[in-house]
Fold these 4 entries.
Entry 1:
Amino acid sequence: MFDLTFFITRAVQQGIPLLYGSTGETLTEKSGNLNLGIPGVMYVGAMSGVIGAFFYEQSAKGALNPVLAVLIPLLSCLFGSLCMGLIYSVLTVSLRANQNVTGLALTTFGVGFGNFFGGALIKLAGSDVPSIALSATSACFKRSLPFASKLGWFGQVFLSYSFLAYAAVIISLLVAYVLKRTRIGLHLRAVGENPATADAAGISVGRYKYWATCIGSMIAGLGGIYYVMDYASGVWSNDGFGDRGWLAIALVIFTIWRPNVGVLASFLFGGLYILHMYIPSGMNLATKELYKMIPYIVTLVVLVVTSMRNKRENLPPQSLGLSYFREER
Amino acid sequence: MNTRTHTPLFHISKRGQLPWYRAWLIRGIALAVALLLCALVTTVFTGVNPLGVFAAIIRGSFGTARKFWVLLQEMSILLCVALAVTPAFMMRFWNVGGEGQILMGGLATAACMIVFGDKVPNGLLILTMVVASIAAGAIWGAIPAVFKAKWNTNETLFTLMMNYVATQLVAYYCNVWDKKGSGIVGIINPNTHSGWMPGWNSPGGQKYLLNIVVVALLTVGVYIYLRYSKHGYELTVVGESERTARYVGIKVERVVIRTMLLSGGLCGLAGLLLVGSTSHTVSTTIAGGRGFTAVMVSWLAKFNPVMMVLTTFLIVFLQRGAGELSSSFAQINDSFSDILTGIILFFIIGSEFFITYKINFRKAEKEA
């Protein structure tokens, strides 16, 4: 029997990491930086959070202070992803390196970082299964409103999530507002569209790129920690995060660089991502694999259609992927 | 009145051509600093003596004759992909879809082996495999190119998405071909060896020599194509300036599509070498991230096919070394090579800045 309420809940939980990733990447891309390192950033964010939580759990010996149990992983996650954003910014903005190459190197590094320290912690914890379970920390992260379960399907669909899920929605709406309605957002978009013009208008191109990339990375990193602490119930297993980072980049295109559209679109992607599990079991496994293709196909269609219609506000930022050097004509 | 003007501490200007030895000196320094940092990171996080780590890394590639041949084999596949993406990059077409193009090539090879295996003469079968794999890769590469040429669709994002479509296609066929329901295609034609490419024995006893020879020839071929052919000239001009290209009468759309046919086709060839000549099976992971690694290999070599042999060596050497590390030291696992590779790449990427640009410090002015 197909349980719609349950499906929607799962889709939203699946979509939240994507929403974080795509909001962060949208902010970054609006400054003209195409950060292909987002998958790596999300791994590092998740891993830093896990490291923080692991050592806190070890030192607290069972008596966790719920505030600290949330705060320590959260701050170490933000710190880890900030470092990744800084590496990317130093290389591409200050040193004007090629963005694609830097991004891919960052992904290699980040995924390696996650899996290496994951492996190291597994050894440290001495568990028999190749994963780390941080269920105590996860329980603190997963606290939801107490009355949600009493409100039937309404509570299930709208109120049953943890604070990080609501934070994701708020952050993306906030980013959308800043980009669209504030002076800072206007300047940032100018930097992404045409840095030379922005520079001539007295906007500090480098500073905007740095801020956008670093904040974007931190937002994306939160997606990593949400995945581990909430979706996976505090269990880190190597490569468990999968290709969600790339899917987040796909989502940026799908939403045509609008984080507010991303809220619903990420839940849609989350639904598409798990749709294959809900297809009647009579069908063979092979067809299910084809269903997993849908998010990517849909993204491709959006990419093609927007480029065909060639409407200015739907196109990628004009100088996306290009480094800016003032003296170059 | 304040008439003093503020001069910044330093400003950056573009260098002219730097003599090659100074450029290499800068790169060498960057590599040395990166290695030092790697040693530091290794000691801090794993507590292993860094000299022991370096010794183990070298053992990973040169410890035994077999390891050395594995190194050459791995190098040949990665180099093939790097050569494939290079013409596209010289045209400023960011083909990050190597992964998908390799998968499609491998899938086509496997399809031929399964469908025609034992039904047609082996020579004809291998010929079909070669044609099918190159065609599959070429088509997968040309689809983004057509959209780029006609509607200027962002090719980085397009090729990236095509990777996952290809991955799922392979997953689909793995399930179709698998009889047991596990979704894993075993070794294809294990008894008759139908469609297995004639692997020439290398001195180590493995059948790697065919791959190595094919890719060595390909390296020379791509070098000549880029350096001395009209096609190579045209794609370089398109890369330097599209307007200039149009002005001198080069049909940009045609060059874009043609180059991507070539680029995708060569990736398909890598898929053929992987499936038909090395593993004789297909799975979603055969490309193993090479499509992305090749981007870095090609860029580090400044798109020069001969230099690419060196940069390929560097990357594969590190990967093999880390494999050795994880078996020698209990504290280190396979992913450590990714961290080391990342650190080294960051430094080499960063060092390019000091080759292209010059930092002029403010001259100390005498106060009047």
Note: The mean pLDDT of chain A is 84.
Entry 2:
Amino acid sequence: MLRINCPFCGIRDEAEFKFGGDASVKRPPADAGAEAFYLYAYERDNPKGWYVEWWHHVAGCRQWLKVVRHTVTHDIAQVAKAGDAVSVPQS
Amino acid sequence: MSKYSVFRLISEGLRGQTGWGRAWRDPDPKPAYDVIIIGGGGHGLASAYYLARTQGITNVAVLERGQIGLGNVGRNTTIVRSNYLFPENNLFYEKSLQLWEGLEQDLNFNVMMSQRGVINLYHSDSQRDAYARRGNSMRLNGIDAELLDREQVRAMVPILDFDNARFPIQGGLLQRRGGTARHDAVAWGLARGADRLGVDIIQNCEVTGIRRDGDRVVGVETTRGYIAAPKVGIAVAGHTSQVAAMAGIRLPVESHLLQAFVSESVKPVLDHVVTFGAGHFYISQSDKGGLVFGGGLDGYNSFSQRGTLPEAEHVISEGVAMIPMLSRLRVLRQWAGVMDMTFDGTPLICKTPVRGLYVNGGWCYGGFKAVPGSGWCFAHTIAKDEPHAFNAAMTIERFRDGAMVDEKGAGPFPWLH
């Protein structure tokens, strides 16, 4: 069970949240072309280590959060508001 | 490493079982091979076996990071079937099922293939129609399928809750030739079979880099030194992104956890593989009596190989909705494997942008049933440098070209999983 420290609600269980996928991909501008949209939609780094991801606090404040989580240990280094920058630990 | 037979069994029995020896060699890596397969799981071993068996390429090494049988090939729910809707899938999985049917004789190894039948339950009129369509698609491609009504299912599987208030069972789609096989024996049998054909199975040999010369692969760096090969196949499902990244390739794959569970042993209560149509739950009973079951993904990227409790609760509640007696059983073992999830649910068995480098991965929920077919197709793809018709659709480029094989009919979209 992950425990996610929502900046709006405090520490809550994973069961209140819905996973939203890779937060490192950026939607390209509308005229960027098919290749850019292919990369945006499909290609992934899929890191074994620190990962920046979206979580939606559906059963809480309903805010989208940016979470820095380790995909092996499941440690959470940072939980930020959707628009905030996050820093990824080096190790 | 002689052949196993009833005479051998009797003679060893008279000699106190002292003469069996090891089932496959433990060689040191040679400096170069014709083909290197990265990954000694089911798919890697099957690929090496069929390279030697059907393509005549025996100077092959299988490089396994740990030991044979400790990865996903030993972490699944052992289900074998070919009940898919689309020809791109059902012809491929049917080839695999046909190979399963002859695998024990071919390998001279008992993989405990049990064609006990796979029943997919349906709970509504629309689901019945969808299953009828799927069954028809299978039968058009020469695969066995039968649509059962409620009473036919009741006669076969009396322990189900037919009158569940929310999801009453209306019937099921049966594939009689589907069933289970003993997963560990599959790994051991393929390792022994490949080894007998001359393949070097090199354990405790982790690949740390893929060496390229321009756009060509020339070999791999490992924890046991550099090994050269003009052709390298990646078969490391779970970690396909990591190994492909060594060659500078990014893939449309995310890695997720899938849990499996085994209950305490009980007397025979379930003769078939049964899947729940109102959720994602599948169950069978092992020969030891344990009920083996699993469900959906944990829901977020992970390589931890540990499942978490919210999904465990979800899976078990689905199981209890289908088979109420499950609530009286204790779960003895639970574990998780790392799944490569592609964005359309269909695997990759294909060439890559790097010449001489091939990838076999993206197996999503369903790698085990594909083991022999995947090895057979991957061996063909590597040896001929072009795909067989069975895996022609399983390319990386299908995402770029919009030619996804989206089996559930929901349409491909990112973050499907």
Note: The CA atoms of residues 12 and 19 of chain B lie 6 Å apart.
Entry 3:
Amino acid sequence: MTEKHHCPDCRWLETRVDLDDGLNYSCQKGNLKAGAPVLTRTPCRDFSLDETAVSVDRKASRSGRTPAHGTRANPPYSPFLKAADTDGFRAFNRDEKELRPVPKIMGEHEAVKRFIKDGDYIGFELYGTVRCPLSIVREVVRQGRKRLRLLGQGLIDVDLLVASGCISALDLAYVGYEAYGLSPVLRRAVEKGKLKAREWSNGALAWRLKAAGMGLPFLPTRSMLGSDTLKSSGVRTMRDPYTGIQVALLPALQLDCAVIHVHRADVNGNCQIDGITGFAPDIARAAKRLIVTAEEIVDEAVIRRTPERTIIPFYLVDAVVHAPFGAHPGETCGLYRRDEEHIKAYLKAIATEEGTRAFLDEWVNGLPDHMAYRRKVGLDRLEGLRHARP
Amino acid sequence: MPALEVSAVETLIVSAARLMTGRTTVFVGTGLPMLAAALAKKTCAPDLVCIFEFGGIGSPLDHLPLGVGEARTFERAYAAEGLTGIMETAQRGLIMDGFLGGAQVDPWGNLNTTVIGAHDDPKVRLPGSGGANDVGSLVWRTIILMRHEKKRFVENVDFITTPGYLDGPGARERAGLAPDTGPHRLVTDLAVFDFPPETRRARLVALQPGVAETQVRAETGFSFPVLPALERLPAPTPHELSLLRDTIDPEKVFL
């Protein structure tokens, strides 16, 4: 949403932008007045980004008073840095999570409807095209979620959501197609000024999730220091009080909802992943709500046979969705390879805006659910992507 | 035997692989680094343990991975863990080397893979850091692989995605980065640069076969000194080329 305010002290700047999750500009001179039309989304130099004062700002803007803002002595940190609510997360886990082992099997429609709301901060776990929970991504697009803030270590997921206008802000580590090049969807959105992104490293985003999973407000790291990546992220640094070593303090990132695609789960949500685990253990523990899609739903006895492989215990999970080939057109290591032909057709389509719209109409919005998607791809074709069983 | 036609990419990969002689652990990113690591493992660094950011440790790389998280990164590997485990291994000082690339590099080895132009109003939106910043911050020595083009070799990168020596000696340490880390070599299809401790600015130390110094200057957007004992790199051997073409990337994904 963009609120209509005008800074009378400044000729070329007249707006206060309030992206859902805190892109707030405050006038450092205290000259902000309500009423003028919005002319631009670019604020003047006197405006600085401020999240610390979001709640105060909202009230102030309604009453027309000058909004609170950071002072020179204690500058506001990046609005893109949502401060960790460490105690709130503990209380949420106590009050809202189901701590008894009960079945949570549901379809993707119900899972998204119940656990992903407009304005939520969400994240998908994946690496490149590997194990990306695309059946849920497509359902989020179908249900038309808006103003989502996204953890952007991704690829097809980010592009589908950005192209569908679901995303208002992006914490970005990497969005691109590796050997196949840049993301045309991200390029169009960012280069036309429709989407703001803040920069992170893969390690930093994963450690932010880990910090939340540890129940801590932040985690120090020796990465990102000295770079513009650090400046863009808004992360603060400090000297370690014991040794004097300079560290970057990564604020814990508690997601409203995370989605992970796994090899197998039981009905209660105990999950196992074969091979490398990416950042699945971290994101699973950093989310208030967790939707798991599984290639296979197995008996609890199967899980109990190798409990050391259960990287996500049931109490972290809110929804278990059976989604064979849930990562298509990407791969799930050990089960099926990626569908190069489909990916090439997809990349060709997203090269233009019209092509992207047509692709979304054909492969996302034009289909009711993942079962229909699988039928459209072709069940035989999907089976053909499977690795031979050893 | 007729002289072999060698492509720029092949020259680059072979030079990078040769820098790994006797090395032990390497952080491997997507694309050319995978080929360089695979070639080094089959030639000058048989003990090399290739580590991939999403968890693969020590795959013999019998099959070339297409991405840093796909199954081939941990095919017949020693271990398969996760992202934070790998990054923490680098933070503990157990990963010796890392390969990096970028859209832009400056004389201090700072790399840009984020935007061309201003960050909030970019001309070109690039993919972002990915794991590059972690590699450039945490491994002991980074080796930068770049195609040598004037538009990529600039006095100041538009955005420091990954820190090199920032703006000179001591800058990394002042920012808090671990001591004794930073770019070791900048390898291109035309030449190799090092970053001597006195300046931490790129210095020409070797030329690729058939390349003249003037050609390197013409393709570089910043000034650089030249090592008096400038080396001339030997051409890729038929053995190296055949390994690359016939064994490592027979499907010509990257070559």
Note: The domain at 8-248 of chain B is CATH 3.40.1080.10 (Glutaconate Coenzyme A-transferase).
Entry 4:
Amino acid sequence: MKSLGLETLGRRFMDLAEMLGAAALMLKSVVFWLFRSGLETGEVVKQAVKIGVDSITVTALTSFFTGMVLALQMGHSMKNLFNEPMYVGTMVAFSMLKELGPVLTSIVVAGRAGAVVTAEIGTMKVTEQIDALYTLGTNPTRYLLVPRYIAFMVMLPLLTVFADFIGVLGGCLVAVMKLGVPVTVYKSDILTYLTISDFMHGVLKTYFFAFMIATVSCYKGMATKGGAEGVGKSTTEAVVISMVLVMVLDYFISAALVAVGI
Amino acid sequence: MIEISKLNMAFGEKIVLKDISVGIKEGELFSVIGPSGIGKSTFIKCVIRLLTPDSGSIVVDGQDIASTKSEFTLARVRRSFGYLFQEGALFDSLSVLENVSFGLRYLTDIPRSEYPRIVKEKLALVGLKGVEQLKPAELSVGMKKRVSLARSIAAEPKYILYDEPTTGLDPVTTGMVKDLITDMRAKLGVTSIVVTHDMKLALDISSRVAMLYGGAFVEVSEPAAFRNSENKAVREFMEISHLSRDGRRHI
């Protein structure tokens, strides 16, 4: 019984080692093709639209309501403590720019675009379309993975900046309409206390998140086996792993950025 | 010239190809037959290194592709191949025009303005007209197969590998595909490897037929000799295919 448990543990460990090795090889191939040959510009644009532009609505809704609820909760807490909804703009902007903007946008992108990427590549894998690419004179890494990596790395930071702005706007709406904070006060609360490094703190994190989401989604797609069921399994795994890793990475990257004064 | 020597391939415990050695000459139409799931597709995928064999060599025009680690060498060798996939393997997100012209972009220097004309020409060869703007999802199984065939011959490769070229096709289209395969050889001197479980097709079009059974080629001979083979596996397969020694179908 004990040896069976150890065997299962050992097998899991071997599977994990194999997966990490395969992901590392995939990354090596991505770097190789990124600098080795001309970019598939058309594919990059297509993927940027799929990953970025198509995520605008859901990002906007998520961040707008997050900004609203932040303003509401903080405004009321301040009212209870100081009898005045003080520093609502500062707190909404701090939270949105440094944490909620990047993290929520990354989770939205991992759940929406990450799933699309894994499902698309996974379907291509199980229907021999990846093999077909080899036979038609191109490499799947060059044609499929490199454009997706670039699209994630460009679009996620842009979406985050957009989400920051919308979130602050949502907070402003509640602060003005519900808490009676004048727009000028809300604005000056933000501009007085926020620095460019607060903004950069959030944006820099998204590059790590984008890289991680691209790696997980592409790897899971390329490793898909076993028909439609396999595609579903890979897609679910990619989304779950990406979401968990966003949260885990968030802490460590934030700690590192704080340590270097950003 | 494709020279395969001592090719071995296994999936886990299951041995699929065992010490296979065969030479395929320029302009030859070599067919591999055998029941489904015996390893025919594995064999053809090894020939173009879509699968890496466990051991053995596959020398294509003097270059051993079984052992090379260079992506560029593989890509260069693959340029001389066309491949018809069993299920078509058309790119879902692209139109028929884009699918058929895909290889032209990467394998040739033909200007893009020429693509529509070439695609139209190749589609006509497989009996299709006016489907250029359709997506694969809008095509029937047979049409997909024909578009895939047009894609594999578009760049006019030196070698064409056909994986079950007539499966899922109606009798008229089967005849058309059969003629196309023989024409590619007769008119353009294309070297072809066909894997199929259609014994009649193999015997009708091939210059040599090989029977894959138990991981090995149990018979490799010209169609006439193949029909009269005394090999048990060949005889059984002929019986199952309702083929008599004179090549006629019987019920």
Note: Residues 88-157 of chain B form one domain.
